[in-house]
Amino acid sequence: MKKIIFSILALSLIAGSISSQKKTDIEKDKKAIKHVVQAQLDAVKALSYDGEAAIWAQTPYIVRRDVVGWDSVSVYYKESFKTWKDGPKPIKFYVFTASNFDIYVNGNFASVFHDEHVEYVQEGFAVEEDNRVHKYLEKIGGAWKIIALFAPQN
Fold this sequence. Notes:
Blueprint: H1 2-45, H2 49-55, E1 63-64, E2 67-68, H3 70-86, E3 91-106, E4 109-122, E5 125-140, E6 143-150
């Protein structure tokens, strides 16, 4: 009887330890995912192609709204940033933040809903926008990368 009780107690401790470890790993992943989401917004704010390239999975299956594959997404960012910097209607971003996260992690994939707040000036007019955005991320080589971004089209 003592062996049975001891075995049950030992199994309970091991199961609790494994469960606690998984919860800790998920919280660590959520923190890393939030960092990637904000890094993406910081890249847009700075009009930094290198910043975008660092946080996107450079694969053929990524999606940014209706643009598919890294080759096309890469061109989108290069052309957009050039237009926003040097075009006839340049944009200067002042604030670009993420908040109110809903993150769902399942292994190497994550679904993230979050609010975005952006403030910028275009053609001399100050603009503020608030949107709810949805992103998918994949853990590749131990690092979280964006594989899909869906946001309202303004």
